Structure formats: structure tokens, C-alpha cells
Amino acid sequence: MWIQVILIVAIVAIGFIFMRRSGSDRHLAIQRLLLGAFILVAILSVLFPGWLSWLAQLVGVGRGTDLLLYAFVIVFAAFVVTQRRRAVAQDAKITQLARRIALLEASMNPGPAVVNDSSDEDQSQAVIRHNDAEPSRSTSSNPG
In total, how many domains does the chain have? Predict the structure, then answer.
């Protein structure tokens, strides 16, 4: 009963916290406060194991270990969301860097296009296609 409300509120709160842009001082402060609260609760649970069972009974969970399991599920979900956001941001940065490098290399080397495939035959075909597209510079075909 109460545990369901608490779990739903915690999941929604985690969703809102981690959907925001990270990097701000306020966001970092919230993360540090939550980490400090987690450490305090963990220490109290170790020092007073009956307290966790009492808290579990208070919110409608049968045992303290079940309450701990629910808390770890929420923390794990928050961790997964955070890692996913970081991976998406990192992928976007890598894509942007790869594009910049490709443009820089193209502007520095205006020579024939080279395809970096695994087979040499594909590379030679790409160079041949590129050379065929250039106008012929042969002096023997000049009528004179």
C-alpha cells in the first residue's frame, strides 16, 4: 500500500532528475545529497538492523531485506538511465568529431578518393572510377 506509492514517486522522481541536462552545479549538488543520504541510511542499517525491519513494516513491506531489494532496484534503474544518457551523448560527440576529421582530411588532400574497405580490389576500383571521372590530359589527342 504505502510502499507502492513510495516506489512510484521514487521512480518518477528519478525519471525527472535524470531526464534533465546534466553538468550544472545544482544537478551535481542533488546527486551528492542523494549519495550522502544513501550512505547515511546504509550505515544506520548496519548499526541498527532492526531499524530497517521497522521501517519496512511502517511502509507496508514484510521484511527489511525486501525493502532493501526495492531500494536497490530503484538505484539500479537510475544507474541504467544515467549510463544510457552518457552513452548517447558520447556517441553524438564521436559522430561530430568523425565528421570534422573527414572534412579536414578532405580539404587537406584533394587527391583521388580512397575507400577504406577490407579488400584491395574495392579500393582500386574506387580510384579507377575517380580517375575516369577526370577529363583526359593526354596531349596526343590534341588536334594540333
Answer: 1
